[in-house]
Amino acid sequence: MHRRDIFNILFKGSPPNELDTAESEPVIETPAYLINEGTIPFFREYKSLSEDVEVSILPQLINYEFVLKLGAGHLETPDGLSGISLCLGIKDAGLPALKEITLGVNAEGYLFIGDLQSKSKIHYDQLIADLQFIVEVKPQPHGKSYAKLKLVDRIGLTLAVLKSEQFSQENWLGVIRLELGQFHFLQLEGRSAPEGNQLLTTNISEY
Amino acid sequence: MNRREFVRTTSLTAAALTVLPEKTLFANYAGEKLKIAMMGVGLRGQNHLALILKRDDVELVAICDVEPRMLEMAKAMITKSGKPMPKIYTGDNYAWKKMLQQTKDLKSVLIATPWEWHKPMIIGSLEAGVKYVATEVMLGITLQDHWDVVQAAEKHDAQVMMLENVCYRRDVLAVLNMVRQGLFGEITHLQGGYQHDLREVKFNDGIKPYGGGVEFNEKGFSEAKWRTNHSVHRNGDLYPTHGIGPVAQCININRGNRFLKLSSFATQSRGLHKYIVDHGGENHPNAKVKFRLGDIVTTTIQCANGETIILQHDTNSPRPYSLGFRVQGTDGLWMDVNNSIYVEGKSKPHQWDNAKEWLDKYDHPLWKKYGNDATGAGHGGMDFFVIHAFIESAKRGTPTPLDVYDAAAWSAITPLSEQSIELGNETIDFPDFTSGKWMNRNAVFALNDDY
Question: In Å, how far is A149's CA from the nearest CA of chain B?
């Protein structure tokens, strides 16, 4: 007889005594940032992003996991590698000033997020072709965030990865600005609460 | 008896023909015969050659190989079959190009050469106007190779079918039948792999194809001449398609589903060095070789519809053969290692059923129809079905049931797993070789008893 069957017989008709304790019972629940029932997908693409166009990460997005994809290329200049740098989380006057986030690949061929730099150098030949930067940001407990920056080449091979937990979710909120380099496109993908619905009706041609 | 045992215990010359049934398939075939040429007639190629020679709907017009010993074996098989001797191309590594240039109205090519030759031979065939190319498993070496083949197939509007024979294994097809009939509920998790002690494939004495020594590369024979070198220089799942092909069919990969992400881990590399020391001594020159391939490589894949897949590559250690399949859903599962099935509501609670009764009950229509014809064909009959599917597609001018997108997605696991390990076991993205077409493509594989 299986252990399960033995216990079924033993406990039949005799529920275990309930403990009498003043302590509150431990509660197990799914963190709010992982509950996305009722939310709606958010996707927006910006073409031919130039330095004078500003794009924002919106308050609705930072409550859930979101992804930025940036198509880039032509990092080669007559003087060598130019690097690419993107600044995120630039706050306007209505928001409290927080540390901004810079990320990208530097002229030496290393990925970076803020102060953090990847250990392995990306080969020069890989950086002069078309590339895609993918930034995945996942909310963590206590308002923190987990960010992963991936560099993917034109055929879809991941060339390098850098992860960071140095920023809060609030840090990501705000304007995105290109500090160095050129991008072909920028995609922003995530989820938003239903009240953020009107964002989806925005005509992307205005960007 | 597997291929290795078979070849070891039988005279190498004209071996494969002797086990196939005498009956000819499509005898008195009245339609136009399919002209086919073969690149590579080594031991694997000879398995296919035997099947081709048994068919009266195919005309073998040319063969090509650089190994005189293999060519002699192939010629002996052809002579024994009573079929006309095809034109022979040999002499250098590019004799296949000459074959493509000189063979008129060639409709199909079958490639059974070392992995690194598959991509150039496939693309070379397509550029020569061949519309149906069958290639032994592994589409290419690098990720770029896989894209090159996909783009060439699209450019020339041609079919490239990877001969992934395990998709046609009898139990695998029965389980696919069960999956399609909803026995296991919604599929959530799958496992497979290539768990095969290849030490006597990777090393031999330079004379026999399997074992007897610790030689490889120039001093080796057959697969040891080229395959072992991949274990020296690469660390990843070097042979994923036997494991991934069958499970990919269960969840419609490239047809409503796709691989999204992958991560791989490798153990330390011990088995191949130990084998050399145990069988050749510490002072054998090959004992100094550093093998990069971990003894066991484990890869996890996440799919667009939520399923997870675990693949294992295990070829350097002593162990019995097993592909380690597991197909699991919300209502039950199949595991081939313990030969068991469990279906909630039909099996006794918390107890395995012997898989045989289920597999017999859900035997696939293809096996019901062609089981006798497949008897004696390579790898338990699977080779019959994969060749049959290719030839029937080419004869009818229809898409092959396993296409270039399947081939690329399954085979690309190798370079992607290498990259994941190289990056410290990072989870990396899986490219979409269909460029979005996966969302609207329908399943075509083994939907009936045709091919």
Answer: 11
To the nearest whole angstrom, how far is the Cα of A154 from the nearest Cα of chain B? 10
The shortest CB-CB distance from A2 to any of B147, B350, B432 is to B350
Amino acid at A157: L
Pick from B163, B196, B229: which residue ends a domain?
Answer: B163
The reply to whether ipTM tops 0.85 is no
Out of B147, B350, B426, name the one closest to residue A158 (CB). B426
Kindly tell me if the per-residue pLDDT of A194 is higher than 80. Answer: no
pLDDT of residue B146: 98
Pairing, β B296-303 against β B308-314: antiparallel
Query: What is the number of structural domains in chain B?
Result: 2
Q: What is the mean pLDDT of chain B?
A: 94
Residues A139-157: pLDDT tens digits? 998 899 999 999 999 999 9
> Distance between CA B42 and CA B67 in Å, rounded?
8
Contact B429 A152 (CB under 8 A): yes
Structural domain containing residue B416: 167-365+402-439
| CA distance linking residue B278 with residue B214, whole number of Å | 10
Nearest chain B residue to A2 by CA distance is B350
Query: Which of A70-79, A109-118, B356-365 is predicted with the least confidence, judged by mean pLDDT?
Result: A70-79
Give whole-number Cα distances, B365 to B443, B446, B451, in Å.
17, 9, 10
Q: B392 vs chain A: nearest CA distance in angstroms?
A: 33
Residue B327 counted as domain residue: yes
